[in-house]
Automatic annotation (TrEMBL):
The keyword Coiled coil applies. GO terms for biological process: DNA-templated transcription initiation. Pfam families: Sigma70_r2. This is RNA polymerase sporulation-specific sigma factor. Residues 19-84 form the RNA polymerase sigma-70 region domain. GO terms for molecular function: DNA binding; sigma factor activity. InterPro entries: RNA_pol_sigma-70_dom, RNA_pol_sigma70_r2, RNA_pol_sigma_r2, RNA_pol_sigma_r3/r4-like.
Length: 180
């Protein structure tokens, strides 16, 4: 068998021959571990791929026979495949004739339309903030984003309270015009 495996690395016909010879093992593993006929073709393809990988990954220097290497690889590979599909549930899968599909029954607090609207509002706000002067933007940033009070801003900028108040009022007026 070792000579056949070595030749299979070069010849496609021999590779197919080896893969076909392990088809009963793949089907038996499917029967034991997967059981759902909807996944038969996928499991078979997974098994074929495992055998093909075994052909290329087999180490001829080891005493372990090729058949045993393929058998253990296929068993563990199909087990892993079965584990993956065990949690694979489609939301479009019908529950029963009365209730429709799983997607219709699941309650959600997520408001997709509201989320898009919120993101749109944020984009518009950013665009409107960019239209403010540097001083106006700075005052709005400190008041609304950094939660500073007017006295702190006046002290840091070393200016009169009314100057900051007027900057804030003009900035809010521009933002209202921009945002509608």
């Amino acid at each position: 068998m070792r000579e056949k495996v070595a030749a299979a690395r070069e010849d496609e016909k021999i590779r197919l021959e080896i893969i076909k010879s392990f088809e009963p093992l793949i089907k038996k593993c499917f029967k034991y571990y997967v059981k759902d006929l909807n996944y038969f073709n996928d499991a078979m393809q997974e098994g074929y791929l495992i055998v093909l990988m075994c052909i290329y990954n087999y180490d001829f220097n080891k005493e372990y026979p090729f058949e045993g290497y393929v058998k253990s690889s296929v068993i563990y590979g199909i087990k892993n495949f079965a584990r993956k599909i065990k949690y694979n549930v489609s939301l479009d899968e019908p529950i029963n004739e009365d209730e429709g599909c799983l997607y219709d029954v699941i309650e959600s607090d997520l408001d997709v339309e509201g989320e898009f609207e919120h993101r749109d509002n944020i984009k518009n706000l950013k665009a409107a903030l960019n239209k403010l002067s540097e001083k106006q933007r700075g005052v709005i940033d400190e008041i609304y984003f950094k939660n500073k009070n007017m006295r702190e801003i006046c002290k840091n900028r070393r200016c009169h309270y009314m100057t900051v108040e007027k900057l804030k009022e003009r900035a809010i007026k521009v933002l209202r015009e921009q945002l509608g």
